Amino acid sequence: MSNYLQTVESVYEQAALQPDANLCCTLSPVWNLPDLHVPRIMLDMNYGCGSTVNPRDLKSGDSILYVGVGGGLEALQFAYFTRRPGGVIAVDPVAAMRDKARANFLEAAKINAWFKPEFVRILDGNALNLPVESNSVSVLAQNCLFNVFVQNDLEKALAEVVRVLRPGGFFATSDPITPTPLPEAFRADAEARARCLSGCQTFDEYIATLVAAGFGRVELRARFPYRVVTPIEYPSLPEAVLLESVEVVAYKVPDGFDGPAVYTGRTATYIGADEGYTDKAGAVLRRGIPVDVSDAAAGRLGRQADIVVTGATFHARGGGCC
Ligand SMILES: C[S@@+](CC[C@H](N)C(=O)[O-])C[C@H]1O[C@@H](n2cnc3c(N)ncnc32)[C@H](O)[C@@H]1O
Predict the structure, then answer these.
(1) How many Cβ atoms are within 10 Å of 98's Cβ, its own excluded?
(2) DSSP one-letter string for 10-29
(3) What is the domain range of residue 224?
(4) Number of domains present in the structure of the chain
(5) Mind listing the pLDDT tens digit for each residue in 188-226?
(6) Which residue ranges have their beta carbon within 6 Å of ligand 1?
(7) Are residues 72 and 218 in the same domain?
């Protein structure tokens, strides 16, 4: 195993034994859902950088693979929707983290009448070699783990995601990103990498890596400030950097009419004299009604005088015409 992966595992072994409020630490609120009660220890072990759970994306019968279980906060929220033994499989290579998650699920069962610990099956497993059959799950989620991987390991991990997802299934992912490439000396800091700070890609790199892995449709759910890293704690940085976090859903589907369809919250509205406009992809834009479009379609449609396109909000809700 590479040295940096050993550092990652030892950081999370420690974080399993002693909750670490400064590790990753998003203050993203947990979903408030009827009868969902999250044990305090899971909140203290929120080592994510966003949310990968979104009721809008989930449907009954989903089978979910959660990679990097942490304290179990998100696996519990996914189990809220699946509610059957093994409906969520959670993998983690760190034995202490798996033990802690098991203990936390016992706590969760005490305060959630609907939940049984066997709803989440915890496996010893690694993102780089998932212990799961090909084409076997409809949803795969990871939160704040993949950013720790160097590029070739990241590509391996994404190839594993694509392998185990069923056609049509989706990858829910959240990671920090950086406004400009981080200095090499900081990137080489294995401890900062393990703590989800120095391995970040830029936004464009993040999306390009997902597209290159084979996802035909990528939707930006959210993008928000995550952490400011400064030369005070990291002298290898020449100046402070504001890292952001993204929440993305990427579908294992073929490319669209314009190639891979990346939705960043852009819309197109037909404002011409007719009732509507049928675009080359066959989608109909009704006059005056904004429709979500991919970045590529926005570029194509925006060249027409009778179509108004809007910029990225980084909040695509799903759906859209093209
Ligand atoms: C940043 S924490 C995120 C935990 C959880 N996803 C959350 O949102 O709270 C990373 C998790 O991934 C686990 N992990 C570390 N290396 C891994 C690997 N190679 N494959 C899968 N999980 C790994 C760690 O033990 C830890 O539980």
Answers:
(1) 20
(2) HHHHHHHHS--TTSS---PP
(3) 3-251
(4) 2
(5) 999 999 999 999 999 999 999 999 999 999 999 999 999
(6) 8-9, 12, 24, 46-48, 67-71, 73-74, 91-94, 97, 126-128, 143-145, 196
(7) yes
